[in-house]
Design goal:
By secondary structure, the protein is α/β, with parallel strands linked by helices. It contains 3 helices and 5 strands; from the N terminus they run E-H-E-E-H-E-H-E. The termini are far apart.
């Protein structure tokens, strides 16, 4: 019997650098908020559809220039993948301030 396994790539990114990169793509300053210090968030970024509530969260993030790491961030990262700003895959986002 052989071990069945899947190989996945995980991208490790610092939240400050990710915010700067995405802010450049958006044409405005962006920051991640509502996160305890020294916290890692694991996010699976995929292209996909967003519902009405997600679209509201995305619109607020773009308009206000911040993304809450407590809620709505998955929808924002789906939006970023749909815009081809982030490649699909697994990300570990390190928030440290």
């Amino acid at each position: 019997m052989e071990l069945q396994k899947t190989t996945k790539v995980t991208h490790y990114v610092d939240a400050f650098h990710l915010a700067r990169y995405l802010g450049e793509k958006m044409g405005r300053k962006l920051e991640f908020i509502e996160s305890p210090n020294d916290t890692d968030y694991t996010v699976e970024v995929q292209k996909g559809e967003t519902d009405e509530w997600d679209q509201e969260a995305i619109g607020n993030a773009i308009e206000n220039g911040w993304v809450s790491m407590e809620y709505g961030y998955n929808a924002f990262f789906t939006y970023c993948a749909n815009e081809d700003w982030l490649e699909e895959g697994n990300y570990v986002i390190r928030v440290s301030w």
